Each structure stands twice: as structure tokens, then as C-alpha cells.
Amino acid sequence: MVDEVLLLREPDIRRLLDPRVCLSAIEAAFAAYSTGRADLPAVIQLNVPERQGEIHVKAGHLHGGPVFAVKIASGFPGNPALGRPASGGLVIAFDAATGAPAALLLDNGYITDLRTGLAGAVAARHLSRKDASIAAVIGSGAQARHQARALLLVRDLREVRVFGRDAGRAAACVAELAADAAFAGRCRVTRAETAEAAARGADIVITATSSRTPVLRDAWIGPGVHVTAVGSDQADKQELEPELVARADRLVADSRAQCLRIGEIHHAIAAGLIGADAIDAELGELAAGLAPGRRTDDEITLADLTGVGVQDVAAAGVVLARARADGAGERIAL
After folding, report:
1. 66's torsion region: left (phi>0), alpha (psi -120 to 50) or beta?
2. What does DSSP assign to residue 219?
3. Torsion of CA 2, 5, 11, 12, to 10 degrees
4. Residue 210 CB: number of other CB atoms within 10 A?
5. Is pLDDT at 212 greater than 90 in this prediction?
6. Bridge-partner residues for 206, per DSSP?
7. Fewer CB atoms < 10 Å away: N or C end of the chain?
8. Can you give the pLDDT at residue 1?
């Protein structure tokens, strides 16, 4: 018997990875993680300081699932000046019955981008007000786009405000979203001149930057607002003022263990404003019905999303199931 690996490239992966199907799979993966039905090792982080490069290696297995996966994702902010995308990566899936390589997903970081956006949608589904209609996205890169698109899967938005420090990139982000069929005739997309102008009066505020200093101030957030922070995926990154984290009425982590080491929660703890017991729940506990999400319309809710490997496994599983059904991809003998 000759072992084979299924090779899938980015165009096929984009075609096969339906966001709505993937949203359900990722929500189920969060629930599995928080109820002990998944294995998730610690993240490996590698830096290339001379290029400001970041590499994250994440892995996971959903118990009973057909595959386990290892994801390598990179971010090199200087790449656009070289005519290359800032983010990249791939996912390797292995047969969970034998450990043999099963598939190589050359997604160039698309799976990471999409699953992160969909995690924001899972958080918004459980923590934002059901009548939320105005969203602010601070950041104008690929993740800002994914977060905005994913929100439309769970909330009937009428306006999305985008702020980016680079006005040209922010304008390009707005133009791309406004031209998207999902927004056309349904949701207005505008560029905010400042982060404060974007955030004040919004029902949902998402931070999607690589900032090392806060981009969202406590004073800008009023009662009833939901905040999702997705950019702080290593210890020195920070998007929120710690006072905002401490003031949240409902504080949710994607992974307690991880958010105690990285993300916004660990900054608030380091500042002495909260303790580890301030984390009300993991996102997976909300998804599994083990803990409530938003309880009242005037609560301030906050989700600290640092990224967990089960998201990548879930997304890879969706891709592989569709690929096998469609006969997509290229088979390579080992």
C-alpha cells in the first residue's frame, strides 16, 4: 500500500472553506476544548527580530476527529514593501488513527485569518447585544476585513466604522468591504478619522492590530458595548487599556491558561488591576452552555482572543471533508 498526501493550494482552500459551515465547526471546537474533549499543547513562538518577523506554531486534536493538525503561521510586516503579503503559513493534517501525514494545506495564512475572524463572530454571538447594529473595527489589515465579514454572520449590522493609522490602507479596507456583496445595500462602511471616533457610540468594538501600546481607551466604552481583542497573540502586544479589561462586567478568554500568559488579560493582571479569578468563563464554556454569555443589555462584555490550535483543526477538517467530497486537490505519493 502506497501512502498518499492530499495537497491543497490556497485557491482551492478559499473555495472549499464555506464561512458559515466553518463558523459552526469552530464554535464546536471551542466547546470541545473547554469541556476536556480536545488536546492543545502550548504555542511555540519564534521571532526573527532583524525583520520584525513572528512565527507561531499551534497544534490540536479534537477527540474522535479524523485528523490532528499542526499550523505554522508567519507575520512579516515589511513584506508588502517587497511585493509580498505580510502573513503566510500552512497547515499539516495527520491521520488521527495512524499518525501518518494526511494533507498539506498551502493556505498562505488564509485559514488563520478566517478562523480568527470567525472566533470574533462566536464571541459576538454570545456576548454582544442581539440588537447590536454599529460595529467599529480598529485596524485595517486582512484581519479587520475578516472580522467585519464574520460579524455579518451573527448580527444584523447597519454600519461598520474602520480606523487605521495608515489612512490609505484604511480607505482601501473600506472600499473593499463596501464593494462586498454581503455589505452592499445592507450595511454602510465608513472610515473613521480616529480610533475614538470609531469606538464611541458603537455597539461592538473589535481591535485587530499588532500594537504594543493601547489603541482602545477605557473612556471610549460605555454601557452595553461588547469588545473583542484579537491582536495580542504574544506577551508584548497590547491593544486595550488595562482599566477597560478590569471594568468589564463579563470577561471571557478563549483559553484561560493562554490568556494568563499573553493577551489583554495578562496585562491587566500585571498592572495589579485584576486577578486570575476575574476571568468569568472561556468562550467554549459559553458555546457548550456551561456558562452564560451576556446577561443584561447594559453590561460591558469583553473577549480576549489569543488564538487556539483547535480552531485550525476545525477549519482544516471542514476543508478536507469538502475536498474529499469534491475530489479536489492533488494526491502525492510518499
Report:
1. alpha
2. G
3. 70
4. 18
5. yes
6. 137, 228
7. N
8. 45
Distance CA 37, CA 137 (A): 33
The residue to which cell 505554522 is assigned = 72
CA 21-12-66 angle, to 5 degrees, is 55
Tell which wins on pLDDT, 196 or 54.
Answer: 196
Radius of gyration of the chain measured on its C-alpha atoms:
19
Say whether domain 4-111+310-333 belongs to CATH 3.30.1780.10.
Answer: yes
- What residues act catalytically? 71
Q: What pLDDT does 42 receive?
A: 87
Q: What topology is assigned to 117-307 in CATH?
A: Rossmann fold (3.40.50)
Pairwise CA distance, residues 300 & 224, whole Å: 5
Per the confidence metrics, is the pTM higher than 0.85?
A: yes
Contact 312, 56 (CB under 8 A): no
Classify strands 330-333 and 4-9 as parallel, antiparallel or unpaired. Answer: antiparallel
Q: At what angle do helices 142-151 and 167-179 cross, to 10 degrees?
A: 40
User: Which of 188, 233, 224 shows the shortest CA–CA distance to 205?
Assistant: 224
* Beta-carbon count within 10 A of 85 CB: 14
Domain boundaries, the chain: 4-111+310-333, 117-307
User: Quick one: which of 13, 35, 14 has its CA closest to 310?
Assistant: 35
pLDDT per position as a tens digit, 70-89: 999 998 988 988 888 888 89
Lowest mean pLDDT among 3-17, 77-91, 209-223: 77-91
Is pLDDT of 333 > 90? no
* 45 burial level (CB within 10 Å; 0-12, 13-18, 19+): middle
Sign of CA dihedral 12, 144, 242, 158: negative
- Name the residue among 120, 133, 189 with its Cα closest to residue 161: 189
Grid coordinates representing 179? 464593494
Bridge partners for 251 per DSSP: 302
Mean pLDDT over 247-267 rounds to: 96
Question: What is the CA 326 to chain-centroid distance, rounded?
Answer: 27
